Structures are given as C-alpha cells and as structure tokens.
Amino acid sequence: MDALELLKLNLLSPMVLAFFLGALARGLRSDLAFPEALYTALSIYLLFAIGLKGGVELSKTPLALLLLPALATLFLGLFRPLSSYLLARRLLGVGREDAGALAAHYGSVSAVTFLAALTFAQGVGHRPEGFLPTLVALLEVPGIVVALLLAKRQGGLGEALPEVLTGKSVVLLLGGLLVGALSGEAGMERVKAFFVDPFYGALTLFLLDLGMVAASRLSALRRVGLRLLLFGAGLALLHGALGVYLGHLAGLSVGGATVLGAMAASASYIAAPAAVRLALPVVEVGGMFLSFARLVAFAIALVAMLALYLFLTRTWMGTAIRAVAQDREAMALMGADPHRIYVVTSAVGGGMAGLAAALLSIQYSVHPHFGAAFGPLTFMICVLGGLGNMPGAFVAAFIMSEVIALGGVTWSTEMGYVVAFALFIVLMFLRPGGLLARRE
C-alpha cells in the first residue's frame, strides 16, 4: 500500500469524515448538538468495549510478552511529567503549581487519542497487540501522580489519587480488561453482537461530536500565545518519538509501537483536569484560572497596601514620616524626634518586605538568590510610581506586571522584562517625576 492509498484510506474513512463534518457544522453555526447523556453513553461504550476486547487478547498473551512493554510504558509515565515540568519552568517561566498542572495534563494520556490511534493502526493493516489497553492505565496514573508531587509536595495528593484511580477512563478500561480476561473468547462470543459489530458505528458518532467540540475551541488558540502552542507541539513530538522508539525496543509490532507513540504524544483532558482541580484548586475570574495561592497572595497584598496607605495618610505617625521625608530639620523644630520616626519607618518597611517575601514563597520555589530576581523590578516600580507616592507605585506595579506577563506569553519571560525596562525608560522621559506626579 503506497502513501497515497494510505492517505486516502484514512481521510475518506467514515470516522474521519464524521469528524470533519462535525467541525464544518460548528463552523456553519448549525444547531446540531449531542446531548451530554449521549456523549457519556458513547464514551462509556467505547472504553468498555476496548477494555473487553483487550482482556480477551490478554487472556491469550503470555506474561513474558507483556513485561518489556509494561516497563517501557512505566518509564514513559515517569519521563513525560518530569520533562513537561522542567521545560515549563525553564521555557515558559511559570510557577511550580502552573508547571505541575501542565505536567499533569501532558504526563497523562488521552483515551480518545488512544481510540483514534487504535482505529488508524487497524485500518492500515497493522493490528496492534491486544494488551495495549493495559498500557493506557500504566501510562495515565504515574504521570498524574508524579506531576502533582512536583507541583505540591504536601497535601492535595490524597484527594487527587483516588480521583485518578476511580476515574471513568481507568475504571472502564481496567474493568473491561478484567471481564474480558476472565470470560475469555467463549464469553466474548455471547456479547460480540453488541460490543464488536456496532463498535465502528458508535466511534463514528463519537468523532462527529468530537469534531464539533474541537471546532468550538479554535478561538482559544488566540488567547494562549505562540510560545504555549509551540510548547505543546514540541512536547507531543518529543514524547511521541520516544514512545515509538521504546515500543520498538520493547518488541511491539509496528501497529503497537505506533499506538504507544500516539499515547505518549497525547494529553489528557478528562482524568488530569479532574485530578488537578482537586490537588491544585483554582478559581476562574473572567475566563482566567488563578491558583488559590496567587489569589490569597493578591488579597493579602491588597489589604496590606490599603492599611499602609491609611497609616501614612490618616495617622499622626504616618504624617510625620511623610513630613520628615520632605524636611527633617523643620520637623525637628516642631518637636518631632526624627530618630524615632526613622526607627518606625525602618520597622514598617522591613515588615512589608518580609510580608512580600512570604507571599512570594507560596508561589515560587525558595533558594538563596530568591530575591535577586525581584530587586531591579521593585526599584523600577518605585521610581516609575514616584518616590513616596503609593497610588503611583500601585499603578506602576500593575502596568509592569501586565507588560511582563504579556511579553512572556507572546515571546519569552526574558523578553517580557526587556520590554518592561524599555517602557520604563520611555516613561521616565515623559514623566520624570513619576506617573502620578503633580505638575507645579
């Protein structure tokens, strides 16, 4: 079979055409839609049918043939979340929890991708090994667990692990495997009319709905940024190539190695999101997902800033601090003790710096050079806002954080800082006294 015939066989199959039909229907704004109950029923049927057929094949497979593929899959289950986590921290510059959430998704496996790869391999005449559904569970569970351990080293995992182990995909695949392995071919003959013959018809309907879902989410590509898209595509290529290579080394057939590579290249959108929501809780605000750590840090910082502003503007000591900053000699003549005011100012400033460090420590990993990354940025914000001008510092901090975040999403974290410093220089020429400085 040449490449053209292979391409025609796959693109013109009912399953693939149904996927494109679903995408076209969504693009034409058709009112075609699957009830949620139908989607759930189809996914349950397909996953259990795959597990059932895999269990029958497993009952005929010697355990020695399963050992090497299982070890290769476990290695993938450890390597994928580790590589995803490290690359997310290094290339995307995200925090520990965000990197862990990404690693959980890319470290898990998509049951839908497994279905599609299995169908593809069978369609081109390379029948995969029957025990491959077993490898799905071996690949899914370690990937999520390792990623969550990296993201959150205490708490949360005890709730997330049962969610993974009792999730629909794992229960149906492993349950189907167990039923098929115990009943064998004799038992399969009794349910063949329901679980074998209608399988591809149900898969066609499933892919029709999946096409509509995929088309409806195309608009999200504009919001995630080019770097995140390249990150996802690069991980898929890296993990997929490694999966095919390890499958070949483990003695899998061409079809089996292809399916293992597709499993390794996939990312979960069922089991991993559910586990991440439990272990790394987030709050959705205006379409953005914020971890509780960041939300708590922002709330505490906002309250602290308001308290400091009221202290400086509504109390005698706060007024004295601002007055000494403007004219120390005049305040001494008015009976104020500048030395005492300096001590209070140092204590308040040190307390605010300590609070800022504590809030940062719950979002980032702590190391000896932890504060060096924030020193230049803090100086830039203070100068840009206007020395002694709290509202100006707040506005400057908001502007700089947005510029760095947008630059990081569009290009890189380092480029975000470059753009922020360039903007700082321009604004200093335009407003040398600070953003909210009064004109005299």
Automatic annotation (TrEMBL):
Gene Ontology MF terms: transmembrane transporter activity
GO CC term, one of those recorded: plasma membrane
CDD domains: TM_PBP1_LivH_like
Keyword Transmembrane carried by entry: yes
A Pfam family: Sbt_1
InterPro entries with a match to the protein in the record: Sbt_1
Membrane spanning residue stretches: 6-25, 37-56, 62-82, 103-124, 130-150, 170-187, 199-216, 228-247, 259-280, 292-312, 341-362, 374-399, 411-430
Keyword tags: Membrane, Transmembrane, Transmembrane helix
Transmembrane as UniProt keyword: yes
PANTHER family registered for this protein in UniProt: SLR1512 PROTEIN
Protein name stated in the entry: Sodium-dependent bicarbonate transport family permease
Native source organism of the sequence: Thermus islandicus
